[in-house]
Amino acid sequence: xxKSILRPLLFKFDPEKxxxxxxxxxxxxSAIGVGSIFRKIYxxxxxxxxxxxxxxxxxxxxxxxxxFDKDARxxxxxxxxxxxxxxxxxxxxxxxxxxxxxxLFRLKKDKAIINRMGFNNGGVDEAVERLRKNKKxxxxxxxxxxxxxxxxxxxxxxxxxxxxxxxHVDYFVVNVSSPNTPNLRALQDKEPLTxxxxxxxxxxxEKNHPKPxxxxxxxDLTDEQLLDIIEIVENTKIDGVIATNTTISRSGLQTxxxxxxxxxxxxxxxxxxxxxxxxxxxxxSEKSNRAFPIIGVGGIHSAADALEKIEAxxxxxxxxxxxxxxxxxxxxxINKAILNA
Length: 341
Fold this sequence. Notes:
The chain contains 13 helices and 13 strands. The chain has helices at residues 2-10, 15-31, 35-42, 75-79, 124-131, 154-165, 190-205, 223-236, 257-263, 274-287, 303-312, 321-326, 329-340, and strands at residues 51-53, 56-58, 62-64, 85-91, 104-107, 112-115, 139-143, 171-175, 213-217, 240-243, 267-270, 294-297, 316-319. The chain is globular and about 50 Å long.
């Protein structure tokens, strides 16, 4: 029903407007009791799906990636579709509008999306107020810096978000890999990244019950840079890696070059990222001798895509663009395939 009726209708309209319309619709349906129907249709409760990863118990290994519910507005309702965990954000210390619209584009021929949202969010404190009401959903907090904050002062932005969210999320994700905030990816370089992660790890160690800290990396890193990531994880003792964020590459697309050029800058997600994301997961897993957990994300549009990520070394997987193109049924399909694997 989703792919035959609902998706063709939604895809007739502007992607960002559809995103907010869908949020309103899901919230309304959940408020009138349809959430329980969603759970019956999409949720798969089986103890064999539980995963113990970086000290947390995930009810199943399929999560929603950051960027979909940036401001923690819908994490409870979205969990009704069967996700084992929801990652909110990226949040920044201060509210920011993000980049000018139009900034979200579909590449239908490629089952892909290009976005240059630019960390648009209402600020971490606003998200915290919504997360106070959470009782059951396992939530990750994806944190970043404000656009106006120079890289030399980035640590303070990440620390602010870390402190604000600490009592309200189950794990943290350090996002230095979005291509849509100027110079942000420079923080992936070995020296500044090591310094940032050590600062967060030290602050975390001061807590009575430290939370897992993960690093989200770009798919555009070279093998040499990926080896640096392995070394950084080992040296800083963070808890894991999310591989991968969106790509700035435009290679191998079926969409006409003129249309892609007209869209311009932004991070590409979806099916074209499937292979590269899996390559990065396998490289990190093999070269580190599975030294740390990896959450696999990027181009998961089928159960086979998810199983491939897990086989490559991912302990958990996340959806974003695949959720938009394939619908909520994909979550149950993946969990069923994991049980039958």
